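[job 4471] stage=fold_predict status=RUNNING
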Amino acid sequence: MVPVSRRRTLALVLLLEGLQKRGRGRRSRLWVHPFNQQRRQQGDFYHLVAELRLDSQRHHQYFRMSAEQMDELLSLIGPEVTTQRTNYRAAIEPKQRLAVALRYMASGDSLASLAYSYRLGCTTVRNSVHMVCAAIEKIMMERFLPRPTRDTWEEVADGFWKKWNFPNCLGAIDGKHVTIQAPPLTGSQYFNSIVLLALVDSNYRFRVIQVGDFGRTSDGGAYAGSALGRGMETQTLDVPPSASLPGAAHLGDVPHVMVGDAAFPLKPYLMRPYPSLNLTRQKRIFNNRLSRARMVVEDAFGILSSRWRVLHRRINLHPQNVDTLVLAACILHNFLLSPRETVRLLEEAEQQGKKLSPVRNMGGNRASREACNVREIFSTYFNSPQGSVPWQDRTV
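[job 4471] inference complete, writing structure tokens
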């Protein structure tokens, strides 16, 4: 029989050996894989990306932005994606983290594919995407996707009247699915997607977005639970007061409204089309005028997904990180928006025939008399000498 003291000594020796092995295991995981040690000699960042800066067209195709825009972006978020060098490996410089994240968003390539081409660990690539998207949200949100003010709403309304012939309009609203790899044990709540709800101005700029609702949520459900929906209902969003329509003071003051499709409820501040059965000519003209203004949000989604093609893929990130990625994509959309590129991206989206899938329509709603009256006033106005436009008769 082994004495007690001997058993204690043996146990202590085994414990120390185990701790040493664990320590060696931890240190081994910090080593850089021999394949990735060739990063400077073989990695895309030090060769392909450097060459692309000499060719503006290919640089834009690869990153979906110019080298100058990329430099400006780096100047904004660089400090947020800077990490410290350790005793075991050199830190990944912010410019390389940004390149990896933008290429992931622009191409939709897998994280593993980017890890091989950039000679980085897959975890490093994943962390770079997370860091860059989080930095864009933190640093750029207030500047490129700020909370609307009274002046903002008035600017948007002026744009919709001048460009799309729809007065008193606060924006076009719609929801789209972003396909994800649903986490385990989440049942059917995600339906393998999350919902991006957006309000867009006359120039395809996102003014309000919400991302993260489960894929099973309808447009109307996502809107009702959003800060936008609650704020419009409680009148806490600093929306301009009701005003007369241009040249039609005799119709009285009319609320400022958003325009949406049949998936949204009819509210005094949210216009949807008339149901498409047995419509009069006047109602068909209203529907066409509303549809023309509402298509701005469809086009904005087309531009967004044409630039950031990861939105066409099943995104294999945790839903919370997908939310941040989509939000970052919308902020970058506003950051990069320009009239010339808007036309090109719209043409590209049309040629590809790829769009973000719409959120399912869960049916109509019981509208209030006030909401129906507001829609009737708009309908009357669009069919009056003050509100009609030459092209509308050709659309019915």
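[job 4471] summary: Residues 146-395 form one domain.
[job 4471] exit 0
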